[in-house]
Amino acid sequence: MKDRSMPRVAPSPSTDASALFPRAVRRWLTGSLAVVLALTLYLIAVRGTAIIFDLGEAISAFCF
Question: What single DSSP character describes residue 15?
């Protein structure tokens, strides 16, 4: 009787067997998160006071 199961293939060195996502996806997500974080810090540094006042006005619009 022949064994018709799939042959076992060793994982390639570029992939981590315990990782949730492939390396390219992890790099893209990490880069995207870094860009969002950098833009957030920039907006807080440059427009921080205006953002706080805008949030205060928005909250007061919902609180009667």
Answer: S
User: pTM for the full model?
Assistant: 0.52
Spatial distance between the Cα atoms of 53 and 34, rounded to a whole number of angstroms: 26
Q: Where are the domains of the chain?
A: 22-64
Nearest-angstrom CA–CA distance, 49 and 57: 12
What is the DSSP code (8-state) at residue 63? Answer: -
Backbone angles phi, psi at 62, to 5 degrees: -90, -20
Confidence of residue 11 (pLDDT cuts 50, 70, 90): low
d(CA 10, CA 5): 15
Q: What is the pLDDT of residues 25-51, one digit of tens each?
A: 999 999 999 999 999 999 888 887 887
Joined together, the tokens standing for residue 18 give 């315990």
